[in-house]
Design a protein that fits this description.
Length: about 230
């Protein structure tokens, strides 16, 4: 039987994107998940006959929940990964060692860090974010970051090795060419600092721009499917 507290919470769930946290009787977070519609996703857990045994076992521990509304599914994905890292919920733990789920890597040990997807973790001084449970949403989030910020996509070991001239990304406005000294390390570092904030879930300063770009990405995907 669904607890009375849960019954009230289920009645008032929002339809917006966000993250949900399932808690046990002691208030411990046992599972963190994301949703495009919190109402639809969370309510689906309480249709016991449709759930696999592992999910049914988890739900026997759940007596309350918390929801956090965000601006987009991609933002929910980033927040989900950060909350899993913070709370280490027992029913999310398998994600840490599951090679199917990717990470976003920021090579912060480099003078001009790169930002890209990886499935391998190394003790190399880089910052890793994830694992992310949706590859598609993660790539959408990374695409938005690269449209907001002119982070380099090349693999040069700057400044030790560099090309003779800027690449196409410079000419189309996607990079400011630190490889040929057209952007200094200080301004590039400020940009990386903002990217790290976003990947840590702090999107307040750029939320409007992020939501606009995510809407554009969604509309482009719908056009491609038509």
């Amino acid at each position: 039987m669904v607890e009375l507290v849960l019954q009230d919470q289920l009645k008032n769930l929002p339809t917006r994107p966000g993250v949900y946290l399932f808690k046990d009787a002691g208030g411990e977070v046992v599972y963190v998940g994301k949703a495009g519609s919190l109402r639809s996703r969370v309510r689906s857990y309480f249709r016991a006959s449709r759930q696999p045994p592992k999910t049914q076992e988890m739900m026997r521990h759940v007596v309350s929940l918390e929801t956090i509304i965000v601006g987009s599914e991609a933002e929910a994905l980033i927040l989900e990964a950060n909350l899993i890292k913070e709370y280490q919920p027992r029913f999310n733990i398998q994600l840490r060692d599951d090679k199917r789920y990717p990470y976003i890597k920021v090579t912060t040990m480099e003078p001009f860090p790169r930002v890209f997807v990886t499935r391998k973790l190394h003790d190399d001084g880089s910052r890793y974010f994830g694992p992310y449970t949706s590859v598609g949403l993660m790539r959408d989030a990374l695409d938005v970051i690269k449209r907001l910020y002119t982070v380099r996509s090349c693999s040069y070991d700057l400044p030790r090795e560099a090309p003779d001239r800027p690449c196409l990304d410079y000419h189309i406005g996607r990079c400011l060419a630190p490889c040929v000294d057209l952007q200094d390390q200080a301004s590039y570092g400020e940009m990386i600092g903002e990217i790290l904030k976003i990947l840590n879930g702090d999107t307040e300063g750029v939320r409007g721009r992020v939501e606009g770009l995510m809407q554009e990405a969604s509309e482009a995907l719908e056009f491609e499917r038509a």
